[in-house]
Amino acid sequence: MAVSPQFVRGSSSAFLTCLLLFTTFVSVSVVAGENNGTWGDTSRVSQVAEKKGEEVADSSVTHDQSNSSEHKKVFPVLSFNYDHVRTPFEISLWILLALLMKLGFHIIPRVSNVVPESCLLIVVGLLVGGIIKAIGEEAPVLDSKLFFLYLLPPIILDAGYFLPIRHFMENMGTILVFAVVGTLWNAFFVGGMMYAVCQIEGAQLGNVDLLSCLLFGSIISAVDPVAVLAVFEEIHINELLHILVFGESLLNDAVTVVLYHLFEEFSHAGTVTIVDALLGVVCFLVVSLGGILVGFFYGILGAFTSRFTSHTRVIEPLFVFLYSYMAYLSAEVFHLSGIMSLIACGVMMRPYVEANISHKSYTTIKYFLKMWSSVSETLIFIFLGVSTVAGPHAWNWTFVVFTVVICLVSRVLGVIGLTYVINKFRIVKLTKKDQFIVAYGGLRGAIAFSLGFLLTNSQMKNMFLTAIITVIFFTVFVQGMTIRPLVELLAVKKKKESKPSINEEIHTQFLDHLLTGIEDICGHYGHHHWKDKLNRFNKTYVKRLLIAGDRSTEPQLISFYNKLEMKQAMMLVESGSAAKLPTVVSSVSVQNIQPKDSSRRRAIPSISKSREQEIRKILRANLQKTRQRLRSYSRHDLMMDPFEDNLSEVRFRKQRVEMERRMSHYLTVPANRQEMTPVRKVCFEPEHKVFTYITDGESPKGQTSRPHPSSPDAVSLLHEDSQRDNQRSVLRAKGDTELRAKTPDNQEQQEQQEEEQVKLSRCLSDPGPNKDEEGDGSFHS
Amino acid sequence: MGSSRSRMDDIPHAQQLIHETDFSAAHLLRLHQRFKLLDKYQTGELRPRDFGAIPALALNPIGDRIIGAFFSPGQETLDFPSFVRILAHFRPTDPNRSRDGTQQELANSRTRKLKFAFQLYDQDGDGKISRAELLQVLRAMLETQVVEEQLQSIAERAIQEADLDKDDAISFDEFRRSLEKVNIDHKMSIRFLK
Questions:
Q1: Under an 8 A CB cutoff, do B188 and A514 touch?
Q2: Which SS3 state, helix, strand or coil, does residue A207 take?
């Protein structure tokens, strides 16, 4: 296996490539060696052993082999028992290989810019499959059960959970038309045309009957969500096109399932009657609606469960994953559409679960889903490559070529025809460019392959599989690689990376209300009317049921605003920018204080009271820290690594100084508007309280410290006790200073500011132990 | 066709309206029917209380503002052409219209739509959304159980984000800029039935 000269450029990439290839070779040979399944092949085992430099293993293998004939044996210091861990070992090795490949691609930037990842992974799969075949072993094939039960759900769940609902609902009609009518059209057109092709003399395809062709058509016609995701994610087109193609790929699952089962049944039965066709339509409705209902049911269960998880935060993500997986499996039990069930579950669950769970759980869910779906995707493509090399093929030029051509043609015709009809009903019409991208984005993928694999064995099956694989390769390679330059060429609108803006949210809601009003005036029960009704229903009944605590009555704007502020506050901590400091601080403190406190605050001269509360909270938080440290180690506690932040703190310190300077500038601003922003002033004070922070790792220890831009001094764990005492005394001492500093006096603030620049501080405006978990809940990344 | 033709004659200045607002004749008829339905006492003009009779509008947090937008300041009544002209703002924009400079004058152009929305915010008509006006809108939209400080901070942040010329109010231009990522053509259009 020669290393291509291109890769030699740069020692690191060359080294990495060598490492990857070496790993490939080793793993493959190990896998191949174990596929033999017998101990007899000690030569291979010893090959591996030599590579690993374990000569001892070699001897003990032979030693083990001779065990049976002896009663008294030397105690084996080192023994080799691979069978014991074989299955998990192989699985892990495969996954590791796949991920190393993925890593490798991203390190070599030139390749990953041109070729989409899916193509590279298939190529790797081909290589690995080739290697395995060259060695003479049986290559693992993409088992359908493995695919449908283990590899597909994570990807779909990831897609469904993070589905952009607004765009999806707005274009629901279009998506449904493309998914249902489009797939039907594709299936019948391809099936019919292939049957016509099979009638051609000299193609040796005479034995393929109409039903088989239709079955083949139904398998090959479905746009594949995995492939679409893999390719579209890298090209960043605008949301409309993305959701159109992607939504279509998700929703056509119902159609595919029904058609597939229908034709498979019929191909055994022989004849089709009108009744069967009608039953097929009914079946379609049952499959899709049933799938969605199952998904909704599990989604509501999941949301309801999450309402009570405030005391067991650690297992919150599991509920999301398990309920969704159960939804998928339950749907599959009844041959309903598992994909639609999974999507419905994720969509249903998400708003309520997110309102209930902690910030950490949310992050966990997000990253686990992304991780699993990434692994699944990688594995699927590699397996696809391996299966291509492995599987029995029956290549028939006519069949395959015509399949590819007809698939393309039918897709284009379908899209054009449907768009013509759809545009009559759409407000924002689809342009020719949009149509082209939609047609071009109709990629086929592993679902088609797996469905084909499920067919009963016959000569036709092999031919079908070959054709399916060819179409998949064609769409993924040719269309996948060229779609990016085409998007550039056609100047298709790209996705605008925009920061969420409170203005947008306010105005969007305002416009929603406005349009609903206008629709009511016109007496027109349109889109906005129903959306408004749904929102009202959601607010009055569903939210109360599914969301814990007083988050259930929180208006959407407020939760959006809070999310925004939290996000920004966290960004502030990490980046050191103080641009939006005033509002951050004020909103955060508002969050900390319960409503009743705020009303109390309003009655009394607000300044001192709330500051008192802040002090109290900080004290409580520190005391709590003591308690926490005294608790014994428990695996289930989410404790932060105390040394984790140490390194970054040094980096931040410089930024903190800069920030403090800017903060003091802002301090002067609210001085002029006393009545309006007492809160703001209050919150600033804790910032400037000069209590030195105990340790870096202390603050996020299981609590959500409101990330205010400050950093501790260089304090180590050893000094924490003395520091804490120091802190409290400092607090008391500073009480007076703060009172004085409350008066809008620039000079004093300057003084204080200088002090603070010496000793930087961090505000521990924690809500305290009881509300700790609730405080967690308001965090969202 | 005969009956509809007679109804077309009921509509004053129908042809002119069609030309001005780009509604089709069928649309206009439908709107006229609706107008007559709302006009319970058949006076030929609408009053605010006629709008108030629409039940769904009463539930709308900014319902009264919308009603107010139909009536020019000082006017008590609304005749059909004005009714249609205002509703013309919400027609879907036609991307194929010729860009010969008349685009801006079309009632349903993006700018005009935004201007209409802006006027709903800006009740005193000074061309800017002041902090107080924004607070009023927020209070109306958020209805219940919102702490005053939260409203203040939201309004504060909104103005900070949008206000580029630092005059502590949002002008029409800043308003438009803050909405540039929103597909206004889609968001502010309704499908008029025939």
A1: yes
A2: coil
